[in-house]
Amino acid sequence: xxxxxxxxxxxxxxxxxxxxxxxxxxxxxxxxxxxxxxxxxxxxxxxxxxxxxxxxxxxxxxxxxxxxxxxxxxxxxxxxxxxxxxxxxxxxxxxxxxxxxxxxxxxxxxxxxxxxxxxxxxxxxxxxxxxxxxxxxxxxxxxxxxxxxxxxxxxxxxxxxxxxxxxxxxxxxxxxxxxxxxxxxxxxxxxxxxxxxxxxxxxxxxxxxxxxxxxxxxxxxxxxxxxxxxxxxxxxxxxxxxxxxxxxxxxxxxxxxx
Length: 258
Description:
By secondary structure, this protein is an all-alpha fold. It contains 13 helices and no strands. The chain folds into three domains: 44-103, Serine Threonine Protein Phosphatase 5, Tetratricopeptide repeat (Alpha Horseshoe); 108-181, Alpha Horseshoe (Serine Threonine Protein Phosphatase 5, Tetratricopeptide repeat); 191-258, no CATH class. The protein is 80% helix and 0% strand.
């Protein structure tokens, strides 16, 4: 091979290499654009889902998955949507796909754990909650602990549930759901004073509900505080007159619904 031919071959190889780099760069740029479009559709889908606009949310998430079928967050949010629609087989498949794409997706672990608990797969659900809270950057750790506690209350495993609920309150002492569940757990354990303390804290930060007001009535009845019992009963009857809980109060306290 002459020196001239050698340089010609090297020039061709270099050109081929440069073309390959350009082609690779173009492919990466195209992929980046698809991923950005997918992320935009995911954000829109999540916002519509939060507003309860399920049809529009589904359209946006389908667009996201068309751009990026393995997008972990797109599969995660679509799973939540299918869960809302009670398409449980699709929900399961989508959560698994989300976590297959990104095993560290804490949001997917959190949502999948909640889904599994609802389906009665309590231990498996708690395992996913435990993975989610290992992520120190995940902003919803208190809610994860709350959900794990509720899951274990269904088992029932009250002591383990209490540990998770107390951890939720350590992170966020004003988390309404955790305060209510601790009040319920305390009442069920016969710890009426503790139940009162938690339900009073709940009413400082959470909305009145038939369930919370009935628990307050039962707690004050257990503590033989008739004035407080009657006050909560009246509040329940006035705010939620047609609820089953108001019916229970009317029967057991002698108050009658209007």
